[in-house]
From TrEMBL:
InterPro entries: MFS_dom (IPR020846), MFS_sugar_transport-like (IPR005828), MFS_trans_sf (IPR036259), Sugar_transporter_CS (IPR005829). It is a multi-pass membrane protein. This is Major facilitator superfamily (MFS) profile domain-containing protein. One of its GO terms (molecular function) is transmembrane transporter activity. The lineage of its organism: Eukaryota, Eukaryota incertae sedis.
Length: 257
């Protein structure tokens, strides 16, 4: 049976053919593709190594880089827009000014804890879709804020999405990368954060003076919003799918016996 270049399909077919569910206790078997040894004690990494880095992983990398690039823009943008916010709302207190400046990080703290757990329940791809929608939606909402208090709420919620996106992008990407090239590709992912900061500075320089901080926030939502265009073409993490199969097998096994 041909599985193409989709690591998820390849992985599920291999485990179905071998009849393995308990990965830790199974022994090496001959698979059905010509007698090559299938290391069932660590099948996921082995299968991904065999597949290599192809078009499927490139799409996963694109989504992850867009996520980290967009997330990297958000903290720096706040420092750029605060002076304009003070001019628009001259009665803004210094205390609220400082809270707005740190609001994104408060949301990130909560989001990273929550969505790490959510990703283990509903999948990395689904969770990334949720965090992207939150980040984009609340960034756009913040650009229409009628008051500093409303902007503060929106920035906390943006941080909630950003904090969830960072670990999910990383996890999804890592679970598709062959181990031999993992360091190189993760370096590209880290560069995306710095690139996002540079892009934020460039956009702020080109947009703020003429169009204001609201337009800047709208433009900053584009990279994260682009993830939603890529996600339909990305399979779910093979590691997540296999772990869910193992969990299901353990639940229904006693009932069958």
């Amino acid at each position: 049976m041909s599985t193409g270049g989709d690591p998820t399909t390849f992985l599920l077919v291999k485990n179905h053919e071998s009849g393995k569910t308990n990965l830790r206790e199974s022994e090496d078997d001959e698979n059905s593709d010509g007698g090559e040894r299938f290391r069932s004690h660590e099948p996921i990494g082995f299968v991904i190594e065999k597949i290599g880095f192809g078009a499927g992983q490139s799409l996963v990398m694109l989504a992850s880089i867009l996520g980290w690039l967009g997330d990297g823009m958000q903290p720096l943008l706040l420092s750029f827009i605060l002076p304009s916010i003070k001019r628009e709302w001259p009665d803004l207190s210094s205390g609220l000014d400082g809270i707005i400046g740190s609001s994104l990080f408060l949301g990130m703290l909560a989001g990273s804890f929550l969505f790490g757990t959510v990703a283990d329940k509903i999948g990395r791809r689904n969770t990334l879709a949720i965090t992207s929608i939150l980040s984009v939606g609340f960034t756009i909402g913040g650009s229409f804020s009628p008051s500093p208090a409303v902007l503060l709420i929106f920035e906390i919620l943006v941080g909630f999405g950003v904090g969830g996106s960072l670990p999910v992008c990383y996890t999804l990407f890592v679970e598709f990368i062959p181990v031999k090239r993992r360091g190189f590709y993760l370096a590209l992912l880290a560069i995306a954060w710095s690139l996002g900061e540079l892009i934020a500075a460039g956009i702020a320089w080109g947009v703020m003076a003429e169009y204001g901080w609201r337009r800047l926030l709208l433009i900053s939502s584009v990279p994260t919003g682009s993830i939603l265009l890529v996600l339909p073409f990305i399979p779910e993490s093979p590691r997540f799918l296999l772990l869910k199969l193992v969990e299901t097998a353990r639940l229904i096994g006693p009932a069958i016996t």
